[in-house]
Structures are given as C-alpha cells and as structure tokens.
Write a structure and sequence with these properties.
With 377 residues, this protein is an alpha/beta fold. The protein has helices at 15-30, 47-57, 66-71, 87-96, 111-124, 138-148, 180-183, 187-202, 327-344, 352-371; strands spanning 5-11, 36-43, 61-63, 77-80, 100-104, 128-131, 155-163, 206-214, 219-222, 225-231, 237-244, 249-255, 264-271, 274-279, 285-290, 300-304, 375-376. It folds into 2 domains: 5-133, NAD(P)-binding Rossmann-like Domain (Rossmann fold, 3-Layer(aba) Sandwich), CATH 3.40.50; 137-326 and 357-371, Dihydrodipicolinate Reductase, domain 2, CATH 3.30.360.10. Bound molecules: alpha-L-sorbopyranose (SOE).
C-alpha cells in the first residue's frame, strides 16, 4: 500500500531555504521514511527570486504570502526559514492551523515568544522541532553515544568556540542579521545558539552564566545604498563562562571576527575517564582520549566516523566506510527524523521546548553582560 504523502510548505528561500530544500529532496532517497514527502510550496516575498528557487530546488508551487501557505488545507508541514523576528507569528499561525512545524534557530526573538510558540504547538498536538542540525553530525551523535555510555566518566569541562570571519571586512553590508529588531542578537543568537544546544545535548542543563558581548564595528554600509551607513545594533562576538547543573564548567564563545575561520566549531569535553574533541572543519572525525590506556601509549585517537550498519549514526545510509559526508547531510538527517516522528505521532528532539531552554540561556548571558554579574538561568 502506498505510503501517505506529507505536503511541505517552506517559508523562506535563501541560505536556509536552500539547505532545507536539499534536505526535503534527499531524505527519502537515503533514509527509510514512513511517509512520502511532497515538496508542495516554497514561499518568499520576492516573486521573481522565489520562482527561480522553486524551479531550481524542485518545489511544485510558489507563494509570496506565508499566510496562504499556512491556510492551505493541502499543507501538512510548515518549515520556517525566515529572519528571526517572524518565527513566532508564523509558527503560532501554523500550529493553530494544525500543521507540524520545523523551525530554524534561534526559535524566536526572546523567551516570551518561545513560550507562546511552545504553548501553541502543545495545544494543537502537532510535531515540533527546532533545526539544530549539528546534533545530527555523525561525529556529534557518536560523541553523545559515548558520553551516554559513561566513557568519559564525570564531565568536568565543556569548552566550545563557534568562529566565523564574514564581518571582519568593515565594508560588509549591514544586513538584517545585524539589526536587533529583526535578529534579536548577532553572533550570540545566531551561532552561540548552536554550541549552547550542543552543550545541552552532550553535557546537560546550564545553572548560571557570566558573559560579555561586544560590537567591533558599529556602523556599516546599507545593502541597497553603500554610500549611506547604518548602525549595527547587535553583538559581533559573545563569550560566557558558566556552570552546568551537574557541576561541569562551561566556556563558550561565538564570533564573526575570527579572521581565517570560515565556519569553525571547536568543542572539547573533558571527563574523569577521558576527553573528546570535535572540529566542524574536519567534521567526519572525532578525537578521543582514553585515560585508561597505559601511560606509555596514551594519546588522542582519531576516529573517522563513517562505519555502516548502525555502528556509527546516520552515516551508513550514505556511503561505505571512509567516504565522508558534509554540512548539507545534517539537514537531511534532521528532516528524516522529523518526518518519521510526524508519521508516528511522536516527539523528536530538539523540540520547541529545547528552543525555549536555549533562549533562556541566551537571555541570561545577555542579562549578565548588561549587568556585569552572574545570572541564574
Ligand atoms: C550564519 O552564521 C550561519 O548561516 C548560521 O545562521 C547557520 O545556523 C550556520 O549553520 C552557518 O552560519
């Protein structure tokens, strides 16, 4: 019997719209899905650009008004890839219309909006997921498995840095990501959000934080009129230390000014029995230090996370051992798990509750930076 198909409406067609379109296209080709996916409608404000994306990414229909996609009874799933200030409005309307929702990070502009979104999806009993795609990097999923098995013992340190350099050039235009009214925050909500999510995924919940946020370049050329300058109203970099509820210590930094680092996540987790190290620029490897190895042969082993038959997570669905995968595969993994959760009426992490908890950490750091004191999350 043919599997019931799920019609998807994608809101937002730029970078994340492209990454998610690839995910919707590839998921059924590499994973056993419990439902067929129909790439029904792609939506964005610029009709010429959206039509070009519709053709290129392979969507059946295009729309310029997200409200029409949400109101369309044919649509089962709404995938939100718009600037942060519209996430809440779209998600709450989609939940009220009974749509299952995948939403890009950060979930919303603030904790208040996150609570409203969570309340709406719980009331509608729809499946809800925030797209923290890095949880589904095979090496990260492998790290989670090893930590869960107790391989590291009691965790003492989570040290993570997410570093980019796309704003080092003062001539880089002032996009929506640099305007508080559209983005909520800068590097903090955009990329600290990712390493905060991985901290919660791999180590546990935050208890208290102390942070600082900084804007290096305070004026930038406007995108549509480079002769005019506009104020940058968000952080270029955000750092914080913290304590987890389980006693581990946290040290996180997100920056768009790490000259030379294009999209670099470095994570090191130190436990009583061993350590793990991960580098997104070398994302198929996981470094592992086993403290039980005799002293004369100790060292970080270099696990290439590409084994098949479930030995390593996700990666076996693609190619034989050693044939590595990339950034775009993490969206395919996320969407495959989301579709199967929708099909089974189950919850799939990270949920909007994870998005709310992430926002609580983000806001606590911002409060600490503004008051220059420790803040309980
Ligand atoms: C920009 O910093 C960005 O596109 C983030 O918004 C994404 O979440 C990250 O995966 C890549 O960089």
């Amino acid at each position: 019997m043919a599997k019931k198909k799920l019609n998807v409406g994608l809101i937002g067609y730029l970078f994340m719209g492209k990454a998610h379109s690839n995910g919707w296209r590839q998921a059924s080709r590499f994973f056993d899905l419990k439902r067929d996916i129909c790439m029904h409608t792609i939506c964005g404000r610029n009709s010429t650009a959206v039509e070009k994306s519709r053709k290129q990414y392979g969507w059946d229909h295009m729309e310029t008004d997200w409200r029409k996609v949400v109101a369309n009874p044919e649509i089962d799933i709404i995938d939100i890839n718009t600037p942060n200030d519209s996430h809440a409005e779209i998600a709450i309307a989609a939940a009220k219309a009974g749509k299952h929702i995948l939403c890009e990070k950060p979930l919303a502009m603030n904790v208040k909006q996150c609570r409203q979104m969570l309340q709406a999806v719980k009331k509608s009993k729809v499946t809800h997921m925030i797209c923290h795609n890095y949880r589904r990097i095979p090496a990260i999923a492998q790290a989670k498995k090893m930590i869960k098995e107790g391989v590291l013992g009691e965790i003492r340190h989570y040290h993570a840095r997410y570093s980019q350099s796309w704003l080092v050039d003062p001539k880089a235009p002032r996009l929506w990501r640099m305007q508080k009214q559209y983005a909520g925050s800068g590097a903090h909500g955009d990329i600290n959000a990712h390493i905060i999510d991985l901290a919660r995924f791999l180590v546990g919940e935050f208890d208290e934080v102390s942070g600082q946020m900084h804007t290096f370049i305070k004026q930038r050329p406007l995108p549509d009129n480079p002769k005019k300058m506009g104020r940058v109203s968000v952080d270029d970099a955000a750092q914080f230390i913290g304590r987890f509820k389980n006693g581990a210590l946290a040290n996180l930094e997100a920056t768009r000014f790490a000259t030379g680092r294009k999209n670099h996540i470095h994570i090191e987790i130190n436990g009583a029995k061993g350590s793990l190290e991960f580098n997104l620029e070398d994302m198929n490897r996981l470094k592992y230090f086993d403290n039980s190895v005799p002293l004369d042969r100790q060292g970080f082993s270099d696990i290439i996370v590409t084994q098949q038959n479930g030995v390593h997570p996700y990666v076996g669905q693609w190619w034989p051992p050693g044939h590595i995968i990339g950034y775009e595969h993490t969206f395919v993994h996320t969407i495959a798990d989301f579709i199967n959760a929708v099909a089974e009426g189950k919850s799939v992490q990270p949920t909007f509750e994870d998005g709310l908890k992430n926002q609580q950490v983000l806001e606590s750091v911002e409060k600490s930076a503004n008051t220059r004191r420790w803040v309980k999350v």
